[in-house]
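A further point concerns the way the authors explain their paired sequence and structure data. The central task, working out the structure tokens from the amino acid sequence alone, is never made concrete. I therefore recommend that a typical entry be quoted early in the introduction. An entry of this sort, consisting of the sequence and the corresponding backbone structure tokens, reads as follows:
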Amino acid sequence: MKKIISVLMAITLTVLIGTGISRPAQAANSSSTAGTVATASGSLNVRLSASTSGQIVASLPRGSFVTLLSKNGSWWHVEYGDGKYGYAHADYIKSVSGSFAAQVNTGSGNLNVRQGAGTGYAVQSSLPKGKTVVVLSQSGGWSKILYHGVRTGYVSSQYLKSSSTAAAYPAVKLSVVSFKQTDPRWANVKLGSSGQTIAQIGCTTTGLAMMESYRTGTTIYPDAMAKKLSYSAGGALYWPPNYVADTNASGYLSKLYALLKQGKPAFIGAKNASGGQHWVVVTGYQGGDTLAASRFLVNDPGSNTVSNLQQFLNKYPNFYKIMSYK
């Protein structure tokens, strides 16, 4: 799709829903460990920020496991679900002695997670190569692991490698909502005075709806996003002032990965041979010893078949820019 992006003007972006609280950064990594909820009774609140005034985003039952990412004063930065992060008070979490981070190290394909320590137990999930988990205990060639923040299961120990031999680029996955610009709920919404619709030229508007939904922890649909943005007469988007551009193609895969490790999705635009431009939201990396475009996960607002960055670059091979929020 053809679209010219202008940054000559800046507007004040007021999100329709929520207050714009940033998501906590960091995914499960080589220094992650496990903890158990040690409340006297009841559940432990998980908050968006390291404060008792922070918004409550989840609660963890007494005795349950949780992935510990880092400590910030009296608060643990935790992963409480797959790609979901928050803060829990350290007074109510007991560290699991001997727990350590490890990475899935299959030759190819995914690693089965089973309900018990043996191939006779049912498969309850599967994890991609490079995914970081926390090992709780090991016995008889099997490891009891903590994955997706709070889930436990068993995997064959031979397909794990400890943090001391972990991949250079551990897996990262952010839970970013996916919207399509052709969704009939907003496909025919016109952008500014251009007369053109979200379905026609709205990949950036749709992508910004995904980015802002993640940043604020709310759901902001593309039609609502469009009402808060400004456009040129031709339909070019004026970027919100809390977004910064990087137009240097040098090392852009490293830049995308660095943003993901900060807990931020990245918005990347590229062009095809005729100058047509398109944008996708980068939501994760599958892990590995090197960075490869095929291992970056993307939400493509204009396609149901593009799921990784390499597939996007096959159609739009010329790097344009990366946009990210401050």
In short: The radius of gyration is 21 Å.
